[in-house]
Amino acid sequence: MVMAFLLLTLVVGLYYSRRVTTFREYAIGNKQFATATLVATLLATDFGGGGLLRCVEETYIQGFSWILFFLSTALGYWLLSPLLLRMGPFMQHLSLAESIGSVYGNKPRFITALSSIVCHIFYLAAQIIAMETAIKQCIGLSDSGNIEAMQKTVTVIAAFILITYSMFGGIRSVTFTDVLQFITFTAIIPLLVWFIFKITNKSMVQVISILHKEPKFQLNSCLYMDKLLGIAALFLTNLTTFIDPITIQRIYMASSPIQARKLFLYSSTFAMVIKGFITLIALLLFVKMPTLYKDQVWPYIFETLPVIFKGLIAISILAMAMSTADSMLNIGSIMVSHDIVGNIQTTKVLTDKHKLVLARLTVLIIGVCALLLVFWKRDLLSLLYLAFDFSVPIITAPFLLSVYGFRGSSRTALIGMATGIVAILAWNRCVEPITAINGAFPSMLANGLAMLAAHYLLPHPAGTGWVPPDKIYQQRQQEKARIARRSKQERDGIPSIKRMYCKEII
Question: What is the pTM of this model?
């Protein structure tokens, strides 16, 4: 069953990889994707296999504090949707790094691309671990001898299947395999929730009563100041990770900022539903078996499942892992060929053919690097924090400022990025060991404040500063103002109509 799904994914990926001849088509397609297709590929990328494993484990262990963080992150799409109306000047770009380079110059563009690639290697390693877990539990391999070697061989085969269609297909191949994988895991996860609920042998009222009596699932367990600060910092950090190269690439695949805004609004609703089902897996499992350790959670789930369910859950984890991993491979290859090598001033300009060859080679190199990383670090939460530290303190503040109209010099951006790097290193060394609070968001703030301070305190060239929004944003604001005035006039007209009606009656 697992191998059949992997082969189906390979066939779909290679089918949609045909006729990719230009680098723009490889990077963002033809910008004629339906909104439903964009929603599916965005959510398939956001919900990775590593995220599924991590969120069930952390919800089971940490309780309400992780539930509060996990469900609140679905609001990220909704909170950032107004930002998309300001992105008109960047909609023809191919990557986040190109957008930063168009505002701040080549050096910040290079740093953004390099930082993003390293960050995505950490994320990709988490997805490979998820694929390995799914295959291992599905086919019942132990951790000894030749069986362990066989399990790793199957994992490598799965990884190279996604590398293959990511290499040759570009974003069209990635998008349509994401749609297949999104349909797969959104159909299977509710089945897992239903099955775990059935094996608890309890009614929903009994389940709620048991959870209510457990201290870590009560609201007051989160009201301690250290926990509140930790949850707030992690939520803000996760919110800013929506400003990442993959999400920005999905925005650039839209035909306009208006379609991109619809994409985020629809995704917010669907994300909340999916996250709710994932949370229910952990809650129902705790009711069934409340004494498991973190590393026993998923082995226990697989042990209690019938064979058919075991295969379905393995396929679901594989679908989630591969839909995230192929997007990371794709955007990493784009940044290397377009933003690093293609941005270096040489006597010979890279043609589309050369960029495509380089991009496909990069997919292979990044995939191999992530495979090697898996042998060094396997804790999913640690990989998540490392990914945060390599991206949020460096690239988020410059991009947000540019979207809101700030136009600074290259020196300004470099000062901010250097400040973000120093801040996250200092935080991880001095503050996090004491408070256990992730420092990516405070370091991002330090980056933004340093950029503004450098702009206003140091001499800056003409043409820098703040610029007004583009026409699309202005038209949208004027339309909202007209609707507000019309509504006010209608509300004000209702009492006068009532008075006239009363006078006629009298």
Answer: 0.81
